[in-house]
Design brief:
Helix 1 packs antiparallel against helix 2. By secondary structure, this protein is an alpha+beta fold. The chain has a single domain, classed as 2-Layer Sandwich (Ybab, Chain: A). Helices cover 59% and strands 21% of the residues. The chain has 2 helices and 3 strands, in the order H-E-E-E-H.
Length: 81
């Protein structure tokens, strides 16, 4: 039972630590900011790009942010294990 409580405490510490993380990705004037809960907090578009270009660049930014945040989360999990 104490082992389960210890693991629960570790998971809560990891969640708290992740919540403070932020990833910023910028490509071709398009920028997104994602927090450790994998929520997009900010999007800045480039008005010089057309709709299709904006869509493609935004998609690449979001995908890269997700990948980077997954790496950060995995590293934090390894630190606490």
């Amino acid at each position: 039972m104490f082992e389960n409580l210890k693991k629960l405490k570790q998971l809560k510490e990891i969640q708290k630590s992740l919540a403070q993380e932020k990833i910023e990705i910028q490509k071709e004037g398009v920028k997104i900011v994602m927090n450790g809960k994998m929520e997009v907090e900010e999007i800045q578009l480039n008005p010089q790009l057309d709709h299709i270009q904006q869509s493609e660049v935004l998609k690449r930014c979001i995908n890269e942010a997700f990948k980077k945040m997954q790496i950060v989360a995995a590293q934090k999990m390894m630190q606490h294990m």
